[in-house]
Amino acid sequence: MANEAAPKRNRNDFSCQHRQEDGMKYFMTVGTTPLACANSVYWYLRTGKGEIPERVWFIASEDPAGGPSHDSRTHIEAIETLLHEFLERTPRDDWYNICFETDDIIWIPEADLAQGTRLIGDGILKRCKVGDSITIDATAGRKTMATSAVLAGLALYQKELYNVNFHYYWLREFRRESLGKKAYELAVDEIESVLVPAEAIEHELTGIRISEDID
After folding, report:
1. At 170, which CATH number?
2. Which DSSP string corresponds to the chain?
3. Is a pLDDT exceeding 70 seen at residue 15?
4. Count of domains in the chain?
5. 164 within domain boundaries
6. Which residue range(s) make up the domain with 131?
């Protein structure tokens, strides 16, 4: 059912004080629709396809001058508020150890694919240690940002630094009445939550056959 009865929790139950440094690290691209971002994280957790993250970081666009964007910070604060609301309604104690790193943002230029890829890669390297499992949620943000995130994740995986997965979330049908629904208002058959291992992408890439006839 879309609306499940669940015990309410206080948002103060969520804390970064007891995080486990060996846990999975989750990196999310941030667009201009906080609800889409929050819904994506919730359904990643709800479907249970991947590890529960120990920490969640946000990848956001800089302002036109190249500094931290006030608008992006506002979107991230809204995402955190929504996630606390969603998780408070869900009877899963292990979700209360998730730390949302709203003050430690990976900033990238909005329209520079190459620089964005490097900055995301550098940002992940600074926040993770070799051998960590990481998930990159490329659901939100402009195409440049999402592409940069995937390219950075693949590069880090190919260097054998991390176990990398990519997560995507979307509504199965474009219906206006569904666009404004919060995660717990949506039924399982209304959404799609997909987890793609970097290993699977690398396998497909190596399967591309180039004809010997091509000059």
Report:
1. 3.40.50.10770
2. --S-------GGG--STT--TTSEEEEEE--S-HHHHHHHHHHHHHHT-SPPEEEEEEEEEPPTTSS--HHHHHHHHHHHHHHHHHHHTS--GGGGG-EEEEEEEEEE-SS-HHHHHHHHHHHHHHH--TT-EEEEE-SSS-HHHHHHHHHHHHHHHHTT--EEEEEEEEESS--HHHHT--GGGS-GGGEEEEEEEHHHHHHHHHTPPPPTT--
3. no
4. 1
5. yes
6. 22-174+181-206
